[in-house]
Design brief:
This protein has 405 residues and is of the alpha/beta class. The chain is 40% helix and 15% strand. It has 15 helices and 16 strands. The protein is globular, with a radius of gyration of 22 Å. The model has no long low-confidence stretch (mean pLDDT 97). It binds ligand T4K. Residues 23-27, 76-78, 100-101, 103-104, 146, 172, 174-175, 196, 198-200, 209, 326, 330 line the site of ligand T4K.
């Protein structure tokens, strides 16, 4: 239902705009019949995991799709980051953006490597190569750039620094499957690129991830490392862990890869719809994508300017949640404000000026194949109403909160 008065808002006891929750990251499940047929194959073969035929097919298909020599499938993106950084011999300190999912930092800290948080380039959602250069110390062994929202970070800037300072360079491409940079598919940049195929990613394998690289040596090492370091029966050649992808996960990946264009089309359609509608609303700005690149459009990212809107991003999210629109605020409050990093380096925030500003403004809106055009329209109507009445809504929220305390 369209909101016409403050009392129509669910937060103020009106009816919810949506009966069922609208999620950011509702999984795509693809063609069920094809998936179920593949599951039958798995059961018939009784080959469930450990480098099975579906995992091998998926790795080959992904490598072909991305135009990269090797794809090493893993059980999730976090373990893939851990294995990649270990295979590269990273240690000491590694420079990472604070504006990322905490897994980027945890994958390092978990191994006793210190993540050193770097700010975003001004006006950007990506790591600032200028500050990266300033943060290098004798303990620095590498850099992890993150392709946030599927858009390439400054690959050229980071590559130049890594090469000139002899540092390892990893790209966390968890968001960037099926995306390009200068028309070349993301997957072959840096020493390695790391993908997440978590359920909430538009391309998923329930849980899963992969590392892609053009290096034969690294690929072989990571294949061993994901399987306890085994290079053959009873032959262990590296420290290893269990990072293997299962056959059922690979089956999901194979099915979704076959229909990937349909998934991207749905995301792009929603993105354009949001872009056209949100352009009319003061106080909210959609993060616009460069449609000249191949992108997956899986995140609809918007910023609230509370000086114009007269209502904060957090209050807008509160109103949306009451209406069953489960907008998110990735990556609030920034890794440097999360434990253990907050305790380890309490001063980091002072150099993260752009990060601290962005984490208070940014939010992600529902999209994906489970959402209709009508749903997007309704979310935009809701935002239009909320931002047109920002000051009144914020005042009433404050008054009601006071009344409660
Ligand atoms: N690097 C970066 C830059 C990343 O963004 C990530 C993961 C990683 C590394 C690590 O990769 P993985 O180890 O995860 O493969 C979600 C995802 O769990 C996480 O994979 C993702 N990034 C992150 C950005 O988002 P949460 O804590 O927000 O997930 P959750 O459970 O709140 O789910 C999000 C929404 O999706 C909810 O509204 C519920 C809905 N949902 C979720 C699941 C799992 C469903 O409708 N169905 C489902 O099955 O982290």
């Amino acid at each position: 239902m369209r909101k016409k008065a403050l009392n129509d808002l669910a937060l103020f006891s009106g009816p919810e705009a949506f009966e069922e929750p609208l999620h950011v990251g509702r999984p795509n499940v693809g063609d069920r019949d094809k998936l179920l047929a593949r599951i039958e194959d798995i059961l018939d073969r009784r080959w469930l995991t450990n480098d099975g035929p579906f995992v091998r097919d998926l790795e080959q298909n992904i490598a072909d799709y991305l135009g990269v020599k090797h794809c090493v499938a893993m059980c999730n993106g976090t373990v893939a980051l851990e294995i990649a950084s270990r295979a590269l011999g990273m240690g000491g300190e590694v420079i990472v953006p604070s504006f990322t999912f905490v897994a980027t930092a945890h994958a390092l800290q978990w191994q006793g490597i210190t993540p050193v948080f770097c700010d975003l380039a001004p006006g950007s959602h990506h790591i600032d190569p200028g500050q990266v250069a300033e943060l290098i110390t004798p303990r620095t062994s590498g850099i992890i750039g993150v392709h946030v929202w599927g858009e390439a970070c400054d690959i050229e800037g980071l590559t130049e620094i890594a090469v000139s300072r002899n540092l390892r360079l990893v790209f966390d491409a968890a968001h960037a499957f099926a995306c390009s940079h200068n028309r070349k598919m993301i997957g072959g940049f840096g020493d390695v690129e790391v993908f997440s195929f978590h359920a909430t990613k538009f391309f998923n394998t329930f849980e899963g991830g992969a590392v892609t690289t053009d290096s034969d040596e690294l690929a072989e090492k990571m294949r061993h490392m994901r399987n306890f370091g085994f290079a053959g029966y009873d032959l262990v050649c590296h420290l290893g862990i269990n990072g293997k992808m299962t056959e059922i996960a690979a089956a999901m990946g194979l099915v979704l890869l076959e229909g990937i264009n349909t998934l991207v089309d749905a995301n792009q359609r929603h993105y354009r719809h949001y872009r056209d509608r949100l352009a009319e609303i003061a106080g909210i700005t959609l993060h616009e994508y460069n449609e000249g690149e191949q992108l997956n459009y899986q995140y609809i990212v918007a910023e609230i300017d509370d000086e114009i809107a007269r209502i904060s991003r957090d209050d807008v999210i509160c109103v949306l949640h009451a209406e069953n629109v489960l907008a998110r605020r990735y990556f609030f409050p920034g890794c440097h404000e999360m434990e253990p990093y907050r305790a380890i380096s309490p001063g980091a925030g002072s150099r993260l000026v752009n990060t601290n500003r962005l984490v208070r403004r940014v939010m992600q809106l529902p999209t994906g194949s489970t959402i209709s055009e009508e749903d997007v329209s309704l979310v935009c109507d809701l935002l239009q109403f909320v931002l047109a009445n920002g000051q009144e809504i914020a005042s009433r929220m404050a008054a009601e909160a006071e009344g409660c305390s």
